[in-house]
Amino acid sequence: MSQVIRSPKMYDVCVIGSGAGGGTAAKILTEGGLSVALLEAGPPVFPEKDFKMLMWPYELPHRGIGVGGHAAENFGEFLAPNGAWQIEGEPYTSAPGSNFQWFRSRIVGGRTNHWGRIALRFAPIDFKSATRDGLGDDWPITYDDLSPYYDKVESYIGVFGTHENVSSAPDGMFLPPPKPRCTDLIVKKACDKIGVICIPSRLAILTKSVNGRLPCHYCGQCGRGCVTASNFSSSQVMIPPAMKTGKLTMITGAMAREVILGKDGKAEGVSYIDKATRTERRISARAVVLAASACESARLLLNSKSAQFPSGLANSSGAVGKYLTDSVGSDGWGIIPQLEKMPPHNHDGVGGMHMYIPWWKFDRKNDFPRGYHIEFGGGRDMPGVGEFNDLLHEEEGYGAKLKKRARQTYGTGIGMAGRGEMIPNPDTYCEIDPNVVDKWGIPVLRFHFKWSEYEIRQAKDMQETFRAIIEAAGGVYKTKTPISGESPFGIAAGGKIIHEVGTARMGADPKSSVLNGFCQAHDVKNVFVMDGAPLVTNPDKNPTLTIMALAWRSSEYLLDEARKGNL
Ligand SMILES: Cc1cc2nc3c(=O)[nH]c(=O)nc-3n(C[C@H](O)[C@H](O)[C@H](O)COP(=O)(O)OP(=O)(O)OC[C@H]3O[C@@H](n4cnc5c(N)ncnc54)[C@H](O)[C@@H]3O)c2cc1C
Ligand code: SF4
Question: Is the pTM of this model over 0.85?
Answer without folding.
Answer: yes
